[in-house]
Amino acid sequence: MSTTSALALAKPQSWWARAWDSDLAYSFRHSPVAIVAAIVVLLLVGAALLAPLIAPQNPFDLATVDLMDSRTPPVWSEGGNPKYILGTDDQGRDVLSLLMHGIQISLIVGLASVALAMFLGISLGLLAGYVGGKVDAFIMRVADVQLSFPAILIVLLIDGAARVALPKGSHDSMVFLVIVVAIGLSNWVQYARTVRGSTLVEKNKEYVQAARVIGVNPLAVMFKHVLPNVMGPVLVLATINIASAVLTEATLSFLGVGLPPTSPSLGVQIQKGNELLFSGEWWMVIFPGIALMMLALSVNLLGDWLRDALNPKLQ
């Protein structure tokens, strides 16, 4: 049998085998930092997703909370209770359970706000880069103006405007949506500038010119042909911005303008624990702070690895 015939009869590789042999997988397997960061992210995300099933206590169920157990120190400290490994807060809620549910809330805020920022940034960046002219100038000038303000200030301004615009008493019920929109609107500029720069390069290539010649709709050219070729830098930016969005939410909650105490995100837990820090209840702020640091650091390390892995100049 000839070599050609043997190759023709050879069984094609499965998608898993192709993925395992890809350059991205090879880079991941040879990066100890990326592997450790991925393990930490998987553990934290797994704990967040499985919190309703594996958490020792449901902090939202008042029937499981006993005020007599409030401010119990961790199990290894004097006065600790084996029932509460990391201790309890001032309401008697188990800190370990709060951490699991808090990571879940913080991740939902981070992912939702990054998704909104990506949608706005990619759409406006594609439009600016592909159309050009006055449309490009207008979008980029708006982006330049927004970049002149710190992101946290923009979030605070949007949150303050929402408090004034929404009917009295309805802000607390919509605070989750307000925080997501505020963080998303403060981060779209990075995606828009990144996509615009890549679109300016891609729109002059042969495949785009060919699509124009045969009469393909400009929107179809932008989203079906140009967009897939500019997504590499966007994915890197989105990975890093997840950690940034989680930290922004924690900052807002620490300042008292974020999520309410009924939604114990990591930022809310740190804010409540900080109030009791000088009275000796250190575990209420230390453990949420460690969880926030591990989540942000591991996601950032994965983003750095992905940036290097997708850079052809570093291959």
Automatic annotation (TrEMBL):
It comes from Piscinibacterium candidicorallinum. Gene3D superfamilies: MetI-like. Keywords: Cell membrane, Membrane, Transmembrane, Transmembrane helix, Transport. Its main location: membrane. It is found in: Cell membrane. Coiled coil: none annotated. It is a multi-pass membrane protein. CDD domains: TM_PBP2. Residues 103-303 form the ABC transmembrane type-1 domain. It comes from the Bacteria. Belongs to the binding-protein-dependent transport system permease family. This is ABC transporter permease.
